[in-house]
Design a protein that fits this description.
Strand order of the largest sheet: 4-6-7
Number of helices: 11
Helix content: 40-55%
Number of domains: 2
Largest sheet: 3 strands, mixed
Amino acid sequence: MKYDNKIEEQLNSLICHIDTKPNIVTHPLEDSSYLDVKLLTSEDGFHVQVQALYDQFTDYIGQFIQQNSADPKLHIHIASTLSRLLAYYQQAQSSIKESPLRIEWKTLSEHHIIPNPTDNFNIKQKEKYYRQAYTFFYKMSSVQLWFLDLIIQYLDQQLAPYQGVKENAHVEETTLPKPDFKKPKKPQLNPIYYFTITEEHYEHYEIKLNKLHDNLSKEGFIDCTLPQFKKLFYTKDGSQPKKTPKPIIWLTGYYTHLCFFIQCLVKNKFIPNSKQPFSFNDIALNLFYDSKEGAYFKPKSKKCDVKIKTHKHDLIEKIVSKSILLNKQPTL
């Protein structure tokens, strides 16, 4: 089976290149766009759009491998195709991550300033709209990185059985190991970490997660898209994850802030106070990065013992209450 790149090209057009000339429109702001996707669609709508192509792409790769794997002579074709794709997506991921433009959007989303010596209302509104547009651009690039990471993980897994294939090897060398039909040993499963929402909060839990994400992002506690944040939480009657969700970044750099946030979720009975199968602190340590991607927290103690509350702790407490207790809205 010859490789067909039609689906790949559609997917690549959405996730492999940062938009170097995104469009900012202030009247109305919703017409601002990134890769021709309007702000009105939002990063969540973009996520859905990319997800559909991602599913088509991985389905096609699975079919491509299946139809070529029966013939050992075609293992080279599989290996070279997967290797090429993996290298391409790794390069795309690195390019977007290191883009000065993306870093600039992050800064401008909070600090874009238009000179306004007379405190003109229209100028203040324009400044606000520009910040919202830059926030949208940054979040769209985060969605791109999210899917690039998924694709890289997927291709890496699919390529693993073909790593020993060499282009000039004999058929015997390119043949994959024959399956062992003996009774397999029970595999040691990797633990799966995620938060379970209590039944008490099933009603409107989607709205509550939206508010949590929005308030934590605005106050500089987390750096992730809404879909990424939602993947950390599941309900008992919903479909459970097959693997630990990709961690998100906790920006303050202090474990006491993170564990206090989780403690507030427990206090408000949004997640259970249980040690089975894992304590909420163990779950948090596996679902949050310390300030930057790939860096996990390494506290001396997992316990959350906040003896002296700071302004940050008070702010976290108010954020959780405001987001989860929909009928009570404390001022942040």
